[in-house]
Design a protein that fits this description.
single chain, mainly alpha, elongated, 80 residues
């Protein structure tokens, strides 16, 4: 799923590609694989980070700062 989400970034830059048949671009596919791996690594890192900490506001603040996201986003990711 993360791989497919990465494709949407290309459609923002070249929206005409979205609705027209086009050949597979091996460079785009490689970039999407790289992006998907980055999403997966981040999720694993969050789980490893929270598994050794108490459930607290301080932990959420740490996550928020570590990943440069809002406290709300940190909460949603840690609760997943």
């Amino acid at each position: 799923m993360a791989h497919e989400i990465c494709h949407t970034f290309f459609y923002e830059i070249v929206p005409e590609l979205k609705f027209t048949p086009h050949p597979t671009d091996s460079f785009e596919e490689a970039l999407c694989n790289h992006g998907a791996a980055a999403f997966a690594d981040a999720a694993e890192d969050v789980l490893a980070h929270v598994s050794v900490r108490d459930v607290s506001l301080a932990t959420l603040e740490e996550l928020s700062q570590r990943y440069a996201v809002s406290i709300e986003a940190a909460f949603l990711r840690s609760a997943a």
